[in-house]
Amino acid sequence: DFGRSSELAFVVEPSDDIAVQEQPLILYCQVEGIQPITITWRKNGAMIVDSENAFMLANGSLYVSRFQRVRADGSSDEGEYDCMAQNHYGLVVSRKAKIQAATMSDFHVHPQNAVVEEGGVARFQCQIHGLPEPVILWHKNSMPVNTDNERYTLLPKGVLQITGLRAEDSGIFHCVATNIANVKFSREARLTVSGSHSTVYKDPMILVGPENLTLTVHQTAVLECIATGNPRPIVSWSRLDGRPIGVEGIQVLGTGNLMISDLTVQHSGIYVCAANKPGTRVRRTAQGSLVVQAPAEFVQHPQSISRPVGTTAIFTCVAQGEPPPQITWLRNGQILETSDHIKLKNNNSTLSIYGINQTDEAIYQCLAENSAGSTQASARLTVLWADGLPSPPQAVRAETVSATTIQVSWEKPLQNTKEIIGYVLHIRKAADPVEMEYQEAVSKSTFQQLVTDLEPSTSYSFYIKAYTSRGASKASEVTVVSTLGEVPAMPSLFIKVINSTAVQATWEPSIKLGQHEGFKLFYRKVHLTQYTGPVLLASNVTAYNITHLDASVVYEVKLLAYNQHGDGDSTVRFVSLRETVERTVLNPPCDCMKDEQNNKTSTTGIIIGIHIGVTCIIFCILFLMFGYRGRLLMCKNVQEQLSTPQIPRSQRSAAGLVLNGAARRDRDDRDLNGKQLDMNELERLFPASPSQEQQDKGMMSAHSPPAPHDDTQISTLPLDEFNIIEEQPDPLPKAPHGGSPPAPAPDHGPANEG
């Protein structure tokens, strides 16, 4: 029962046919449903009136007594026929049946004479057009060709192939074409087999490759491929897309022709014939495309439905085929016109009827059609209507409250109001399709509704329905009203101080402000009530400089956007120039030319300073190195002085031993190869400066432990200024007679630096 309305549906529909000239033709049509049912026929969309030549049988079929392709009056019995069935539930139309006259043309390709060497391949071909497709047979020497001979291959398109030619294959060939319209004979062609089988090598060569074919599912395709060469090439087949050809329904005719039986859409593709030389990679290829079409068929049929008044009815009809079919909808046999409440979506696969009423009750048909065929399915819409339902609500009014709000009011229906359980307000933008409609429920005691969250400057349509437990009333009259326009949003304002008498006001681009015509800028001193302005600015302006200001006061700056609906909210900012003035006094304005000159001078100075610094470091290192060497030399001289026998104190100067210029001259004359003092000896000779308390005591020790010393201080003392000051020592013990000079007295304190 899929695709059928139980009230009225087709059991048998007319099918495509090929009629024979002057022969009778019967087109079948059988309908079931609730009687009475009336059946009529159409040809090319026009009603067929019963006549002597064409009339309807009792079972609803159409009978054509003598089919004629062209009548005396110029008319033709060829065309597209369909049958229509109608009862009080509606009307349905059958699929279109294409009727054509059987014909046969003359041969437009005849076989040609051929001379082929023994062992070679011969091919004859003849072509002829006809309806239905003619059957072509071959005769040799006026006798049918023996098809039991495996060397003879007959292809459906009128091709004869003979392989492994022998002398007895020579003869005269012609073809015979036959269909229900006629029988015709082609011209004759002579085949001559010459010489003996050649042993000369020949590269493989494809004489005839596959041609492009367009067929319908369940038909048979024959792809021809005939190749020559010595040795005889091996013919193989493949698909260009790499998919396997398969084995089911596949057969090889002769030496290389590919036959595919019971075609499906999956067999579509490009097929490649290859002629390969045995044992090598030498090959030649040829290719041809196969397109398999499939007539339209339904995947999902529309289903009959029953819906209450005011609701939505949806029919779904999904069809497939190759090429993809086109879907058309009929309502009681007439092409369905879309409107505000009848919509087609998803490539016409979905039919939606919004707010149905009793006039929408009908039989709806889905017709799917492509180049390979057509089909149809039907379903009935029943509109439920209960007696005693309320009449439509009255006096529906809509008033604009704001840019986003509309007040809708109405009055209760005039009839059958006792069972009302509530109202439903239907809302949509006037420019939107019906399927974009939405609803708001209202209690039965409420006769107004405030509709919010609407868009500014937009028209909306409203209608009301009263609902009972048994169904809804018919829709009220539709009222349309527009919301008010909306003023622009508040802009973002920023103030930047330029100098002591000017500021710059900037704001965000206008894209964030909605629809507006421009900006208004105001400013004033905060202690005044009167603004300066408005300064009118275009919508693409985003900055404005305010000049000639008083630096001693605070200013208020205000900015707003405006459009045809009025001024938007303003943004206010306060700014003071006093800090700028104070900074100017403390930091006078710069001379840009002077600053630039100073920048250049500063750069030069930095470079020179770096060079001077590096030079100073080098000299300091050299100075330290030579100073340390000088100290070592001086220490040698002191050692020599101390190692000599001590003279009586009376012979010494009270100031002690003095290293002066004369001593330095004497030192130069001495041998410089004496023993060097180590650091401990040097520290004993030149200890660190004693504390103030020790200096006051005037104590000195030549043999005290070495104290920490400062190399830098030592290195900066010139040798000429070093003095060895010796205090009065304690009485020395007597030395043994004839012994060495007595050793120095033990230290009683740190030595003083002279």
UniProtKB/TrEMBL annotation:
Residues 730-747 have a biased composition (Pro residues). Residues 643-653 have a biased composition (Polar residues). Residues 8-100, 105-192, 204-287, 295-382 form the Ig-like domain. The keyword rRNA processing does not apply. Residues 392-486, 487-583 form the Fibronectin type-III domain. Residues 663-673 have a biased composition (Basic and acidic residues). It is a single-pass membrane protein. Belongs to the immunoglobulin superfamily. DCC family. This is Immunoglobulin superfamily DCC subclass member 3. It comes from Piprites chloris (Wing-barred manakin).
